[in-house]
Amino acid sequence: MTTQVRAVGAPAEKAPLETMEITRRDVLPEDVRIAVEFCGICHSDIHTVRGDWGDMTYPVVPGHEILGTVTEVGANVTKVKVGDTVGVGCLVKSCGECDYCISGEDHMCSAPGGPLLTYAEPDPYMPGHTTQGGYSQEIVVTERFVFSVPTNLDKAAAAPLMCAGITLYSPLKFWEAGPGKTVGIAGIGGLGHMGIKLAHALGAHTVALTTSPEKGELAKKLGADEVILTTDLDAMKAAAERFDLIISTLPSDHDMDPFLKLLNRGGTYCVVGAVGNATHPFSLVNLMKRKRSISGSMIGSTRETQEMLDFCGKHNITADVELISADQVNEAYERVIAGDVQFRFVIDTATI
Ligand SMILES: [Zn+2]
Ligand SMILES: [Zn+2]
After folding, report:
1. How many angstroms does the Cα of residue 105 sit away from the middle of ligand 2?
2. In the structure, what pLDDT confidence band is assigned to residue 279 with cuts at 50, 70 and 90?
3. What pLDDT digit, counting tens, does each position of 10-29 carry?
4. Which ligand minimizes its atom distance to the CA of 298?
5. CA 141–ligand 1 middle distance (angstroms)
6. Residue 62: which of 101, 29, 36 has the closest Cα?
7. Which of these, 93, 115, 15, lies nearest to 59 by C-alpha position?
8. Where are the domains of the chain?
9. Superfamily per CATH, domain 2-163+321-351
10. What is the pTM of this model?
């Protein structure tokens, strides 16, 4: 027995998204059924449905910034109950047994195939099906990957916390952004604007690094203590060796050396926005001179995700969003590619 639900997905590579019906499994003892209310549009959704990251089995229903209400729980579920506001992010299963899973870093699960993505992967629960994401009326997810969302947060604006929020929160915590630290956020878009809000709330001196004076002004409103235009060579020179951590959300090719020179002794340049074949040349001497590091981070663990949501509830942090209806998704995709959104589109799934 399964349930048919309405969704918005791509029927084929390069095809526009359209309304379709997809199948959800029945609730297993560890499962939670969620009535999806809002789903953010992440740049990854666009790359995936267009086949930019490899061959896909179509149709694909994307969406991993999922916010909704619990409508049914399996017999063994203890974390949430019917009526709770919950979120689901990029992952829906991990092995639970490897070193990463046991140490609480299940997002890096080392079992064959790694953790199961929320959409566009073979679905182990329904052989012959593909996992389908949150641009849909309903989703069934195992309890471990369902998170409680503080009820003081606006639901639509909280949806992007499930990918953009955790993607920035995890490296900020890992590299100990906080009082006394200077943290740069390079690129002020869907990811970067969350980085500014989170780094500021963590107590770090937060600096927006952008080429755009307009984005710089917006960043100040989001909580940046300072803005440095990376095109202003004098300002970049004056900022040399000031930063403990720079998180780069820059998605396209760029020279890393101007950023590396901003790091102080032992400082880290952490990449979270690199996609596709972007190249980032750098000088080894710039690393050696001050024991600087280049690192990377991808989303975050289940433990960190709940911690991030609780932190956002306490500090009343959500994304800045533009709410759209299901029939505006294709248009929204074009605007995301053009960088024309402040800062995240969220689909009102009641319109599907
Ligand atoms: Zn995402
Ligand atoms: Zn594992």
Report:
1. 8
2. confident
3. 999 889 999 999 999 999 99
4. 1
5. 17
6. 36
7. 15
8. 2-163+321-351, 164-296
9. Medium-chain alcohol dehydrogenases, catalytic domain (3.90.180.10)
10. 0.96
Could you tell me the distance, in angstroms and rounded to a whole number, from the CA of residue 160 to the centre of ligand 1? 8
Neighbours of 335 (CB within 10 A): 15
Question: In the structure encoding, which two tokens stand for residue 309, read together?
Answer: 């949501």
Q: Which of 210-219, 267-276, 321-330 has the lowest mean pLDDT?
A: 267-276
Distance CA 88, CA 305 (A): 10
- Residue 326's nearest CA partner among 37, 3, 12 is 37
CB 159 within 8 A of CB 87: yes
Q: In the predicted model, is pLDDT for residue 220 greater than 80?
A: yes
Backbone angles phi, psi at 33, to 5 degrees: -95, 130
331 CA to centre of ligand 2 in angstroms: 38
Distance 67 CA to ligand 1 centre (A): 14
* Ligand whose nearest atom lies closest to the CA of 302: 2
Ligand nearest to the CA of 113: 2
Q: Which ligand is nearest to the CA of 48?
A: 1
Token digits for 298? 């991808």
Domain 164-296: which CATH class?
A: alpha beta
The 10s digit of each residue's pLDDT in 228-262 is 999 999 999 999 999 999 999 998 888 999 999 99
For residue 134, give Cα distances in angstroms to 165, 288, 312: 17, 45, 22
